[in-house]
Amino acid sequence: MANNEKVVTRFAPSPTGFMHVGSARTALYAWLLAKKNNGTFILRIEDTDKEREVAGSIEHIKKSLKWLSLNWDEGPDIGGPSAPYIQSERLEIYKKYANILIEKGYAYADPYTAEEIENFKKKSEEEKKPFLYREYRPENPPPWDGSKPLRFKVPELKRTEWKDLVWGELSAGIEALDDFVLIKSDGFPTYNFAHIVDDIEMGVTHIVRGQEFIASTPKFLSVYEALEITPPNFVTVPPIMGADGKRKLGKRDGAKDILDYENEGYLPETMVNFLAFLGFNPGGEKEIYTKEELAKVFDLNKIQKSGAQWNDDKLDWMNREHIKLLPEEERNEKIFDRLQKNPEISKSEKIKDRDYVSKIYPIIFDRISKWSDIDTMISAGELSYFFEKPTLEKEKIVWKTQTQENAKENLEKVLGIFESEITNYESCKEKIIQHATEVGKGEVLWPLRYALSGKEKSPDPLTLISVLGIAESKERVAKAIQILTP
Ligand code: GLU
Question: Considering the domain boundaries, does residue 199 fall inside one?
Fold first, then answer.
């Protein structure tokens, strides 16, 4: 590539379903490479396989890219110099290139029926040879009228050698070359042909994609050769492996739709950061990056060849770090929203009281790594006591080294403190601590905490009082005393 050439990358998904995290990472790398070089990032929809197309996928892909803020400089909706960017709308362009190949003698109409091809395959199988269509190439093919598939004719059978910017030098023998279909009998081009034409027409300088395309690269290169066009740079990104590092990431280990992560309450900033690190590492200690910082440090030489391992704990850790970077107000707003939407507590009167709920923000913030952890906390009963009175079990009010009588006495003492200090949290706190220091921490703080929360695990009682308020705390302690009274 000439030094002054503008970098043009593209993300070219087929609309065959949701957008898998692996595709999101491919898109991200193509985006980063373009941004790093002040280049152009193109979105192109490869919808030439009408049978595999899933309704709604194009919208879904666009929504996913927008959520990640991977905005395209050319593509659907916004157009650009090579519009249209949806392959099914570019059929004339493929035909033009098909005719160039026919004229050059590198394409022909495939005269065989499906049955005949099946028989060739059987024959190859019997001879224990891999099936290669070119071995059955017809001598006098009919002119191409569109009713038959148009096939490529390999210009020269030779070993292919090429360079991949991640994998280095690669090569393949002649068995990798074959007469593949360029245009199907339904008039649509194959992926193998259409993407080459589009990458040429759109001036793509770097093709970023997964390793599943390495095996077909010799075929692609033979088309560039037939067209006498220099191929672009190949950037093959590593596979993403599941948590065990052995298998490719599957559904079980988080190969989800990228938008599932939005629903679970991960930040798009986290996903970008996390996906970037799946196969790339800028080096150094720093792990938390914004998209713009990543674009600065992105470097093809630092993309690894081997599989990159998915790690949910790391994702959660990273999300927490990104949550910490959010302005406090935005973070609190997110927590407030999530609480409002939770069906288990949305009926409580208190949930609507912003001042009251704001006292819980720090407690929640300390314990979550993603927004859906708030729902998990609620279902585990870890927040319910802020919104409704707890149900108490008598035995649990009593700390292990004390008697029921002693627990009751200690709570009565606290009740007295509440009554005398009903408006003053600070002195209430001081007196409770003093009392606990005198007669035993566990003996005072355990019954008090349990009386307030009804849980064996919860924030400490003084924090609970600071949220619930002294009047409410007093009622809960009085209730516990009543339960302990024979
Ligand atoms: N449409 C292909 C796919 O979704 C894209 C491959 C490429 O980037 O060339 O797998």
Answer: no
